[in-house]
Amino acid sequence: MVTRMKVLVTGGTGVVGRAAVSALVERGHEVRLLSRHARRDAEQWGDAVESWTGDVARDEGLAGCADGCDAVLHVVGVVAAPAGGPTIEEINVEGTQRMLREAIAAGTAPKFVFVSSLGADRGESDYHRSKRQAEALVREYPGEWVIVRPGNVYGPGDDEISLLLRMVRTLPVIPVIGGGDARFQPIYAGDLAKALALAVERKDVVGRALDVAGLEQTSQNDLLDQFARITNREPARVGVPEFLTSIGISIAERVGVPVPFHEAQLTMLREGNSIPADRVNALTEVFGITPTPLDEGLRILADALPEALPSQGVGALKRKQFWADIAGTVHTPESLFALFRQRFAELVPGALMDVDAEPDTPSLLEEGATLTMALPLRGNVQVRVEEITDRRATLCTLAGHPLTGAVRFICEDRGDDVRFQVEVYDRPATLVDHLMMRPFGEMLQSSAWNAVIENVVSASGGRARNGIEHEEATLDADQSERIDEWLRDLVNEQRRTSTSEQPGFTRETRADL
Length: 513
Description:
Layout: E1 6-10, H1 15-26, E2 30-35, H2 38-42, E3 49-53, E4 71-74, H3 88-105, E5 111-115, H4 126-139, E6 145-150, E7 153-154, H5 161-170, E8 173-177, E9 187-188, H6 189-201, E10 209-212, H7 220-231, E11 236-240, H8 242-255, H9 263-271, H10 282-285, H11 294-302, E12 318-327, H12 333-342, H13 344-347, E13 370-375, E14 379-388, E15 392-397, E16 403-414, E17 417-428, H14 431-460, E18 463-464, E19 469-474, H15 477-496
Parallel strand pairs: 1-2, 1-4, 2-3, 4-5, 5-6, 6-10, 7-9, 8-11
Antiparallel strand pairs: 12-17, 12-18, 12-19, 13-14, 14-15, 15-16, 16-17
Helix pairs in contact: 1-6, 3-4, 5-7, 7-11
């Protein structure tokens, strides 16, 4: 039987932190989450997680954060320093030193579990050097310590494999680095989370540095092949020499364009980011965890990308409403909405939003479902059904969509009529999307929602008394914040009620391809 522990976890916003907190909670532990926006970040776990607002790169706010804890799980770390923010050394090295200091100050010498990186003991990237320096600090800790070195971690919102998936879905051409055949050994976030929870609990791993990874090695070309089968899209591949890739990455990072491999990751690929043949994979040999097969993990990932809330976009947040008051229909609001839910794929115009864009994806409006659709000029994008009642449904856009925000479908009484309404809250996801929305996107969006309403009116057997009506408004800062809070609450409630068996993921695996 596992003894209940109180565990301080640094960083619950990244793919590793979210999965680790979920794993600890599922195993009955009490978790205190330390992050810059801890109160907001902890909401996705409800009362199961206590929040502590702080930043490992700063002294302010950290004092006492480890008090009363049996263990500290230090997850926070960056591969590339954020623009205009603290350096890699300030986060990865000095941040670790601060957390060690807090663990010592707690007086009870809580166990210290440090998340390092596969190859940190030998790699020459800035990231690996920073992790190696941090490991040296951890080894001097006077209490119990464990170092866990995971391979490339993939899960909802990771900066490499998730981003590569989004690029396959949305780009006509993919740059392939140095031939695309450099091998690395990734690990599914749910598997790493289980290993971290065991590292917190078990005494037999104290004082050890443990390599953990999946069983399979892969490459950029292999991932592109697998994503092509999952998404039914196969963009052209253009080989880019590594020295040109380095220049391109530097430029992209300066202007804020996301790239699937940073400079440090290129160096790690050159060095071979895999467990050496003379070392054991602690995931299986020490922790006894059966790794998730790569093809299964990628299929889970395909429907598990995180929501893109309005606050993550650029420009003004807009509210757009399209509706028709339907006269002469036999339907009630409830029966019309039930019809809309069941015939969603048929009622949405395929030329503007093809909901059958990828194999084995749902086409019905069901709570928690992730819907994939093809948009003109954009490729495949996704939305998730966050809530559904007998008269309405709210869907949020996911990472990779050109818009951040939500769409609601609503049926309600209007005297003797039944109103069917589409309500949209959105802002462009990136500056590029902002520029494209002006000439093309807004026109296509309006055409799509008008077509949906026309199809619903036709299916209802009635007629639109006043035709299709439209209203648009730009929301001010206070209104935008309220919309963001409302959607965040919906997303967190959906995460809390998820029935997924894998920590860190909230969607079921797609059917075998």
